[in-house]
Queue: 3 jobs
Job 1
Amino acid sequence: MKRTCGVLVALIAVVLAGATPAIASEKTPSKFASSTDADLQKKIDAHIAKYGGKQVGKNQISWENPRAVMTFPAPTRSADRTALARIACQTEWFCLYEHAWSDRDGGGVLALHDYGVYYFYEYGWNDIASAWENTQTGHARGNVFDTWDGQWTYIFGGCAYDYQSYVGDLYNDKADSAALLAKC
Ligand SMILES: [Ca+2]
């Protein structure tokens, strides 16, 4: 009897350990990470060669019509790196973050500006978003979709101002497209 109890306790302990949810705050390496300024430039050059756009400043690529800006995280050995690794979303944009806000690694950001539809494959951003922030003016709406085989499934979004510091395990790394609308 005593022995059975011991086995049972051990089994419950194993089950509980297995059920522990993944913690979003764990540091995840960014797909866009670099170690030095030269390494960052190499990554940006490679991204532009594949997805077009124009380099802006040290760590951004900009596209026009519709207007979008992708920001690469600062190199790991750069002085620009702060304790709060998350890149701020500027006012009047809809931002998609590579990592949850609690993730100290920060990761990259894709910021969308104009009303209309965006296909993330055009920016090398399919299945990446883990968080979002809508800082557009006038309660403008941002809808984000997982697209598969011609089907668009709405997965998250909201009217300005709104955000999700983490979209949840079900929709994490799923987003493929977005629509920005003037009305909520
Ligand atoms: Ca997807």
Note: Residues 115 and 180 are 5 Å apart (CA to CA).
Job 2
Amino acid sequence: MTAQFKQNQQTHGAALLVRIKPRTSALVRFTIDGRPATAHIGDTILTALLLNQAHVRDFEFGGSQRAGFCLMGACQDCWVRLRSGPRVRACTALIEETMAICTEGRAV
Ligand code: FES
């Protein structure tokens, strides 16, 4: 765990990312495993997740968690499931109002 991550945890709860330049676009309200969260229009799902918690999804082959790797649609490390059913690649899909994202266990 890096010093920056520890500082982020103290300042922003469990978030892995910290926005260094404020966005002026409207807020988007969505849920992560049923918990309310916010992001901004234009954020990817991956950005929205990591601004609110320290991982993108649980790893299906063990007890660890994943946070994406390439951030550009190549590695397939960031698939999450929407409560409505479809799987989406979090680094290439934009967050939408009322989106319900499942990141836990077999839900992915
Ligand atoms: S982080 Fe690699 S495909 Fe999304």
Note: The chain has two helices and seven strands.
Job 3
Amino acid sequence: MQLGPYTLPNALFVAPMAGVTDRPFRKLCKRLGAGYAVSEMVTSRPDLQDSLKTSRRADHAGEPGPIAVQIAGTDAAMMADAARYNIERGAQIIDINMGCPAKKVCNQWAGSALMQDETLAIGIVEAVVAAAAPHGVPVTLKMRTGWCAEVRNAPAIALAAEAAGVQMLTVHGRTREQGYQGLAEHETVAHIKSRVKIPVVANGDISSPQQARDVLQRTGADAIMIGRAAQGRPWIFREIGHFLATGEVLPPPDLAEVKAWLLDHLEDHYNLYGEYTGVRSARKHLGWYALALPLPLGAAAVFRSRINTLTTAPAQLDCVRESLDAWASALEEKSTREDHWKLAA
Ligand SMILES: Cc1cc2nc3c(=O)[nH]c(=O)nc-3n(C[C@H](O)[C@H](O)[C@H](O)COP(=O)(O)O)c2cc1C
């Protein structure tokens, strides 16, 4: 897939998730088969640009390109400045957030709240495109299907955004009103895909290789974007890639392999956040990993409560090493026992 001057290696994208898809996690997803990732949203408010949180989000050192940065805000001039600010700091693609339903964003009339006011929404798109174009930086837009069930205006916004110069659209198949309730629908994505010429990305509730194939087939979308299903399971991208290429389902990854990925993830995480914050913010990732792995009964809960008591990087790393080794031997024993019974039968 082509996005401006960039040829993406595949059509499997990591969704931006604030507090989750930071640079270390995006790098791991890309290593495990994702073709593209968008940063967590960065505020357009200039007074917050130098905050630790925002400057960490604007640091892309070592991430394989293209570097896509998502900006969120309510004011066209501020959004244009935010685009320029991030381009100066290495953004190669600017994504506009019109998808986030969080109160913090919506109360300021940003995120998916922008879909309520099409004139404002397109004004922002035009300003950001005008700011990015002199640098040759493509602008993309991520939105929901509309504000509420009665106002599913994503197709209208898609057409206007395309006319304003947006080069790719991502659609999460829920309205703003739905939050994360109910199931995502992809008919609106299919409809948008049939109306615009720019690439369209389908997003929402894709959590298996089979669903990925079905959504691609049903919508005709150019790519799919995966969010929550990648939490604790970044190898989902290689599973989907393999399934789309061969029709075969990959077995779950080997725990020795997972151990190496987790330890690399943690080292990268501590490097970005420092030990104090890093150890604490890594806990949620470790909890998700434990839930995603095929572990002995009760092992995930024991692991999570142990991880939550540890406060240093060496202790956290040791706990991960020991736990993964113990789970690997438990699984090996179980399969040896099963093989033994199979042979005996
Ligand atoms: C914890 C969390 C944080 C999110 N943060 C963002 C964000 O910063 N920007 C954005 O456009 N969407 C954000 N989203 C929405 C996701 O990008 C995605 O559209 C949504 O989760 C649906 O996809 P999924 O079903 O694959 O998770 C967030 C979602 C979650 C769960």
Note: The pocket of flavin mononucleotide is lined by residues 15-20, 40-41, 70, 97, 99-100, 142, 172, 203-206, 226-229 (CB under 6 Å).
